[in-house]
């Protein structure tokens, strides 16, 4: 029954998916409350372009994914700061552009490279020890920063102007928050896949919102929903031989549907 | 000239370029409404959701257009229903439903067969597969959608700019929105083959945004957007042919090129006006004529389509 736990790749998958789900679902609470979830989708597609570029040029994929992913935040924030374009449009332009670049890079490659599609659809069972170390370090950093600035993030999530008025560097903090969102997306990219990683950000948080009475409980519920759907997703994908990313998302989505139907108590 | 006419000898290319320009034009037309209503997100989400429908109808051997079309339309209705419920934000509703729908597609593909070229075409677009029958369906959808948008021009426009006021004036806003969703879903379906799931959102957003950069006038924006859409589709097809890259990607890259050019042009034009004004009327600073409309910080956002002049004159009073 539990013989799968003796396999190295399954241990890594469980540990990796726990960390990823934890960081994505906790930071997802801020993304959902602030209505900036689209940046997650944008980052994921741009990061995929980074991976394709890395494969084309022979660079390390994670580094390029990080660079492309974070640059989504930088470019769209810069454009918004200049007051020239609303973020949903600039993200829309930027991510589709990077996605087109990704396809161009794939087209330029010699021969068929199936590993790339692993990044598109996610393969948590292929997480290596090196990946795990990166995931561990970065998710710890993300959660640490969130804990450190919890009060400030909490404040700006509900009332940015009020926060600004009371002397909190709200603009800088919300920029930091966007960077953290994008970072969590990038570390989850290989395991969950560019298109579905966004679901891990939104669905647990949106489901938790149905039950939660305040932000703290929303974060706890979101983390529980995120981690439990990743665990059951990994198990199901191992038993039924279906892709892990899709399974995790479908389980989380069913939890969301049940939450919408049967809750009604949440106050956030 | 051979550069242009050579590819036209191939039937697949002729089919492809006709499909690309039709799809490019209709996407750009819809895009104007999408961009002005700030619905970019739903274009993105819906194109991903339809992937699930495409896979299901392939596996179940339903007709692709009927299967995926129904799926797409149901997704929109579901998003609207969920978003209206209690405390689910619209973006969360879109996120949940469209990713879940995409995940269904991914899971089914992996059960039935391993990832293959035909699904790559669904994701990234492939011109080689456009048959005469596809072309007919594309043409009909484009014609009907364009006709509907033309006939209900005023209703769409009113709902786009101010749904609340439109409702008061007796525009059946809910039905207009449903009709728009239906049009959006059908356009996305027929665009899938040429553009690919991941690229449709770009085909919708980019020409409209480019047009928005260049003009403040709604009618001009519609005209420019459609023109850019058709041009982008055509040029994109040639690029795809000569560089052997998926058509969806090249169409988007051409559209992105247009956008960058328009953006730089507009920036230079503003710089020029700012410079000219600074040079010409430095003494008259207090009573700068109100009709000189400078695209400065306060209202250079792309969404204030008509309000400029009124705001400015009120300020001055």
Overview of the structural elements:
The complex is a heterodimer of chains A (268) and B (317). By secondary structure, chain A is mainly alpha-helical. Chain A has one domain (3-262): Orthogonal Bundle (ABC transporter involved in vitamin B12 uptake, BtuC), CATH 1.10.3470.10. Helix content of chain A is 81%, strand content 0%. Chain A has 12 helices and no strands. Chain A has helices at residues 8-34, 38-57, 61-81, 87-108, 114-121, 129-148, 150-158, 160-165, 170-192, 197-211, 215-240, 244-262. In chain A, helix 1 (8-34) packs parallel to helix 6 and helix 3 (61-81) packs antiparallel against helix 9 (170-192). The longest helix of chain A is centred in the first third of the chain and has 27 residues, at 8-34. The mean pLDDT of chain A is 85. With 317 residues, chain B is mainly α. Chain B has one domain (2-270): ABC transporter involved in vitamin B12 uptake, BtuC, CATH 1.10.3470. Residues 284-317 of chain B have low confidence and may be disordered. Classes of the chains: A mainly alpha (268), B mainly alpha (317). At the A-B interface, helix 2, helix 4, helix 5, helix 10 and helix 12 of A face helix 3, helix 5, helix 11 and helix 13 of B.
Task: State the order of secondary-structure elements of chain B, H for helix, E for strand.
Answer: HHHHHHHHHHHHHH
Class of chain A, according to the CATH hierarchy? Mainly Alpha
**What separation lies between the terminal Cα atoms of chain A?**
41 Å
Q: What is the CATH superfamily label of chain B?
A: ABC transporter involved in vitamin B12 uptake, BtuC
Look up the CATH topology of chain A. ABC transporter involved in vitamin B12 uptake, BtuC
Number of helices of chain A: 12
The separation of the N and C termini of chain B measures 60 Å
Q: Number of domains in the coordinates of chain B?
A: 1
Structure classification of chain A: mainly alpha
Unreliable runs of chain A: none
């Amino acid at each position: 029954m539990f013989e799968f736990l003796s396999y190295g790749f399954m241990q890594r998958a469980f540990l990796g998916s726990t960390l990823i789900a934890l960081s994505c679902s906790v930071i997802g609470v801020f993304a959902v409350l602030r209505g900036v979830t689209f940046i997650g989708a944008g980052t994921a597609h741009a990061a995929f372009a980074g991976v394709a570029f890395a494969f084309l040029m022979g660079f390390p994929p994670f580094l390029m994914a990080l660079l492309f992913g974070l640059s989504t935040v930088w470019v769209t924030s810069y454009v918004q700061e200049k007051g020239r374009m609303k973020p949903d449009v600039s993200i829309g332009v930027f991510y589709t552009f990077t996605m087109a670049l990704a396809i161009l890079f794939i087209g330029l490659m010699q021969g068929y490279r199936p590993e790339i599609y692993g990044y598109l659809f996610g393969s948590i069972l292929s997480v290596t020890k090196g990946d795990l170390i990166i995931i561990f370090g970065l998710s710890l950093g993300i959660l640490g920063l969130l804990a450190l600035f919890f009060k400030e993030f909490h404040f700006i999530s509900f009332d940015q102007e009020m926060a600004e008025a009371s002397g909190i560097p709200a603009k800088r903090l919300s920029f930091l928050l966007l960077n953290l969102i994008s970072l969590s997306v990038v570390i989850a990219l290989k395991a969950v896949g560019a298109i579905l990683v966004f679901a891990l950000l939104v669905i647990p948080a949106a489901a938790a919102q149905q039950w939660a009475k305040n932000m703290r409980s929303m974060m706890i519920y979101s983390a529980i929903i995120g981690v439990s759907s990743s665990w059951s997703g990994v198990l199901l994908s191992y038993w039924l031989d279906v892709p892990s990313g899709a399974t995790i998302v479908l389980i989380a989505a069913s939890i969301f549907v049940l939450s919408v139907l049967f809750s009604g108590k949440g106050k956030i | 000239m051979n550069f242009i006419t050579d590819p036209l000898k191939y039937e697949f290319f002729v089919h492809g370029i006709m499909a690309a320009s039709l799809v490019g034009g209709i996407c750009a037309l819809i895009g104007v409404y999408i961009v002005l209503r700030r619905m970019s997100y739903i274009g993105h989400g819906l194109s991903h959701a339809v992937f699930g429908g495409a896979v299901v109808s392939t596996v179940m051997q339903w007709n692709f257009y009927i299967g995926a079309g129904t799926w797409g339309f149901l997704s929109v209705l579901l998003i609207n229903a969920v978003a209206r419920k209690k405390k689910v934000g619209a973006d969360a509703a879109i996120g949940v439903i469209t990713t879940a729908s995409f995940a269904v597609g991914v899971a089914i593909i992996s059960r039935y067969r391993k990832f293959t070229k035909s699904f790559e075409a669904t994701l990234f677009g492939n011109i080689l597969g456009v048959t005469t029958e596809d072309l007919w369906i594309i043409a009909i959808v484009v014609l009907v959608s364009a006709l509907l948008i033309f006939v209900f021009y005023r209703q769409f426009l009113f709902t786009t700019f101010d749904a609340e006021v439109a409702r008061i004036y007796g525009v059946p806003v809910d039905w207009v929105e449903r009709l728009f969703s239906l049009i959006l879903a059908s356009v996305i379906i027929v665009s899938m083959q040429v553009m690919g799931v991941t690229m449709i959102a770009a085909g919708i957003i980019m020409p409209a945004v480019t047009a928005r950069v260049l003009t403040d006038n709604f009618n001009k924006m519609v005209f420019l957007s459609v023109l850019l859409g058709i041009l982008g589709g055509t040029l994109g097809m040639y690029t795809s042919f000569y560089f052997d890259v998926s058509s969806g990607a090249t169409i988007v890259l051409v559209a992105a090129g247009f956008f960058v050019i328009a953006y730089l042009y507009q920036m230079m034009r503003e710089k020029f006006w700012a410079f000219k004004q600074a040079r010409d009327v430095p003494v008259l600073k207090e009573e700068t004529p109100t009709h000189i409309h400078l695209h400065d910080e306060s209202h250079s956002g792309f969404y204030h389509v008509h309000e400029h002049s009124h705001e400015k004159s009120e300020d001055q009073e």
